[in-house]
Design goal:
The protein is of the alpha+beta class and about 200 residues long. It is built from 11 helices and 7 strands. Strands 5-4-3-6-7 form a 5-stranded mixed sheet, covered by helices on one side. Strands 1-2 form a two-stranded antiparallel ribbon. Strand 3 and strand 4 form a beta hairpin. The protein is elongated and about 55 Å long.
Length: about 200
C-alpha cells in the first residue's frame, strides 16, 4: 500500500523528501525524464522493484502531482519536471561511489549520461535503438536533445544495448570493436556517430 509517512519537519528539504524520499521514487522520476513510459517499460528499467512496489510509488507520485497518466503511459507533470536538476545533481554526486556488484544499467540512465557529456560540434539527428525502444537524439546549438520515439529522418543510427553504449561513451570500447563483436549495428554516417559517441572524437 502507498505510504503516508512524513518527517513532520517544517523544513522544505524534509517536505520534499515526504514526496520523493521513498525507495524507488526518484528512480521512477529518472526514468521519465526523457519522456513517457509504459508500466512494462518501467518494470524492465527497474528490475529490483516489484510490480506492487512500483505501483505504490506511481500512485504516491500521482497523488502529489509529480507523475500523471497519459495515452503513452506515465509522464512527469510540470512539477515533476522541476526535479530534473535535482536528479542530475544526485547523479553527479553519486559518481564518487563504486558500482554495486552486478549493477543494472537502464537505457534512460545511459542516455542521460550521453546528453550531459557530449557535444558533437555539428548539427545532426541520430536514431538510437536500445532493445525494443528507439530514441531521437538531436545535436545542434546547445545541449543534446533526446526524446522517445524514432526520428522521421536520421543522419546516423545505432542499435545496441545500454551496457555497450555506456562502454562506447566511457571509451572502453570503440565503435569498430563493438561492431566486430556483434554488439552494435551502425547505419548512415559513421563519422557522425563517432563524433557523438567516442570521447576522443567529441572532446
Amino acid at each position: 500500500m502507498p505510504t503516508s509517512r512524513s518527517y513532520g519537519d517544517a523544513c522544505s528539504i524534509a517536505r520534499a523528501l515526504d514526496v520523493v524520499g521513498e525507495r524507488w521514487s526518484l528512480l521512477v522520476v529518472r526514468e521519465l525524464l526523457l519522456g513517457p513510459q509504459r508500466f512494462s517499460d518501467l518494470r524492465r528499467a527497474l528490475p529490483g522493484a516489484s510490480s506492487n512496489m512500483l505501483t505504490d510509488r506511481l500512485r504516491e507520485l500521482e497523488s502529489h502531482d509529480v507523475v500523471a497518466r497519459s495515452p503513452a503511459g506515465y509522464e512527469l507533470t510540470e512539477s515533476g519536471r522541476g526535479l530534473e536538476p535535482v536528479v542530475l545533481a544526485l547523479g553527479g554526486w553519486g559518481m564518487r561511489f563504486p558500482l554495486p556488484a552486478d549493477a543494472h544499467l537502464s537505457a534512460t540512465s545511459v542516455l542521460l549520461f550521453l546528453r550531459g557529456s557530449r557535444d558533437p560540434g555539428s548539427r545532426a539527428t541520430y536514431r538510437i535503438e536500445l532493445g525494443d525502444r528507439a530514441w531521437a537524439v538531436t545535436a545542434g546549438d546547445g545541449p543534446l536533445h533526446i526524446e522517445t520515439g524514432a526520428p522521421v529522418h536520421a543522419d546516423a543510427g545505432l542499435r545496441t544495448d545500454p551496457a555497450t553504449l555506456n562502454a562506447l561513451l566511457d571509451g572502453s570500447v570503440t565503435l569498430a570493436a563493438a561492431r566486430a563483436a556483434g554488439t552494435a549495428a551502425l547505419s548512415g554516417d559513421e563519422a557522425a556517430l563517432k563524433r557523438l559517441l567516442e570521447p576522443s572524437a567529441s572532446s
